[in-house]
Predict the structure.
Amino acid sequence: MLLGVSLVFSPFANADIADGLTEYWSLDGDYTAAVDPSHEGALVTNGGGSAEFVEGKFGQAIDLTNSAGNQAYVEIGGDENDMDFADGDMTLSIWYTTEGLYTNWQTIAGKGEGNGWRLARSGGSGSNVTFSSRKPHNIPAALNDQTAGSDKWHHLVCAVQGGVRTDMYLDGTLVLSDTQGYFPQNRNNPMQLGGNPDAANRGWNGNLDDAAVWSRALTAEEVALIWNGGEGASIASLTGAGPSLPFAITDISYSPDSDEVTLTWPKSANASYAVKFSTDLVDWSADLDDGVNNDRDENPDDDSQITVTFALAGGLENLGKIFFRVEK
């Protein structure tokens, strides 16, 4: 039996969103930078602060464990000026979970105080965030959703049109625009993921994934592409940047003795999948199985991909050629 594979991307790659992409960290088991290798991150710990890679929104994520006097954050390398966006435009996109709030101004990502940018818990609020010089300020961000090790991922985007406006998006929705004419400024500090280089002991306690910065303000339509109805789309899948796999069948094998086909594709948290087949690459109306979930994974030690075997029956085993595709 000759088996063909149809590669299906979900969502389809969007070249425009790559415009102005300054850097992207997929955080899939390391701190590699996708655009400029010099921007690779390095884990810094103090006291009993720690970090480990865990199942993320896409592949893996970094789980930072921080408390008073015990800090862990990722310091970004290369020319620190690359991340200032001084007197210009910028966007920060990042996925996060919260595992505990132990102090005011806990920082998800930042470049510094003053008019340097940072995204942090808003003072002593239980669930709000602030971007830079309190512009916008006190935005609801579900920080009270604090189940340790949870998969309760949220997505924040801060898009700055220098001197014009700053837009804050939570989970794909524009929640506030500030029109005080903020310009990011040079802080002479390295950027940190999970920390503020100008204010120690404010490290994030929770998970971070798929962080990216642009030298322009993303549009609402581009933010919607990343949010992708809550399922999410990694920056890698949208731009082709970085090591993360697009949503496509990556391996296939066939056993003629048992008439079984084994497929492998990228794993998404809490996703369900429909496996379809075609004999002509035109008609994809037939399902091999439309109720596959991650519990079916035959290789659970691989956090990035799912492998499932399917029996070919009902005449499928007699066909000379079949094409498969997987949809989330």
